[in-house]
Design goal:
Length: 102
Amino acid sequence: LKDRFDGASRVMVSNSDRVRGNANAIVSNSASNSVHGHREGLARRHRYNFKLKPYNPEHKPPGSKDLVYLEPSPPFCEKNPKLGILGLTAGSATTRASASTA
């Protein structure tokens, strides 16, 4: 899991390649009244109608099992009232070493 987290790819959502079509189309064959008839002969539809593109165009698109993120995490050590981040508590310090072992 840590390797997948470390290798996560930043992506952008692209809905320009949306799957076109009417999801509420009525099936007009004799099996349309069947309990299982509406599934026969239909291709499996994608659950989401958007594609993930790499943020850096030089990177390859993510696979179905790749871990991706849309925006980088904010720096939690720095105070940011707008985001509700309190920053460091008095007397504590964060370092890369402690952040990578969490």
